[in-house]
Amino acid sequence: MKASKIFSIFVLILQTQTSFCKPNEESTSISELEDDLRNDSLPQKQMIVIAYDQLMALGREYIDRSAEISRNILKDESLMLNEKPEVVEFKKNLKVFVESNDNSKKKDVFTIWTLISVYVQTIENYVELSEEKITPESKFILEIINKYDCHTVNMEYRRKFNVTVDDFTRKFEEHKEHMNEHVLQWFKTFKALTKFDEKLETLTDFMFMLT
After folding, report:
1. Is 151 exposed, middle or buried (0-12, 13-18, 19+ CB in 10 A)?
2. CA-CA-CA-CA torsion for 42, 47, 52, 58, nearest 10 degrees?
3. How far apart are CA 149 and CA 156, in angstroms?
4. CA 208 from chain center: how many Å?
5. How far apart are CA 53 and CA 177, in angstroms?
6. Which residues form the signal peptide (predicted)?
7. Where are the domains of the chain?
8. Are 204 and 12 within 8 A, CB to CB?
9. How far from each other are the two terminal CA atoms of the chain, in whole angstroms?
10. What separation in angstroms does the CA of 171 have from each of 24, 158, 164, 188, 195?
């Protein structure tokens, strides 16, 4: 799956989770929503908690791995010596991501998806460049990106997501006799999906279905 697809899904999560929040109230409102869900004994709500926790864990891993790669990129000697304007801007954006990650004491859902958006947008600008738009500077940056295997973050995420889906499906099967018809229909649709991006979007939809 392209990084742009992951980014669009993360933006959906961020927007949906914070749509009911006023400025500067995101963390409090999200925390309250989490508490309400965790204290609700309905099987449907507990499955939402499971999906939420699993996607949050994957998000944290994505951030940690991306930060590690970004630090290595910023230490690259050829990158440090290159002072071309576009390269300088790339380095600045990558530093913003690393410093924001390092300064984030608590990685709640708002922080995670915001960090991911900064990282993916920085990398995506070059990964998605068409041949006619590639400049000598952007070519240099793309070579650096490929040198440090930035695409492996998405590959790792995809592999771990498949494990998450298997675990979620197993737990859902164990409790499906307690689910209502609407949720059971969602599960039937979810199990029939074969494409990674469709599964991720549908699982994300489930998180918000009953909140």
Report:
1. middle
2. 160
3. 11
4. 16
5. 22
6. 1-21
7. 3-8+41-209
8. yes
9. 28
10. 36, 20, 11, 14, 21
| pTM, to two decimals | 0.75
Q: What are phi and psi of 55, to 5 degrees?
A: -70, -35
CA distances from 80 to 90, 101, 122, 186 (A): 11, 21, 17, 50
What is the mean pLDDT of each successive set of 10 residues along the chain, which is 211 residues long? Answer: 49 46 48 69 81 86 92 97 96 94 79 83 83 92 93 83 92 90 92 88 76 55
Reading the block at residue 159, the tokens are: 């592999």
Amino acid letter, residue 158 = R
d(C-alpha 75, C-alpha 85), whole Å: 18
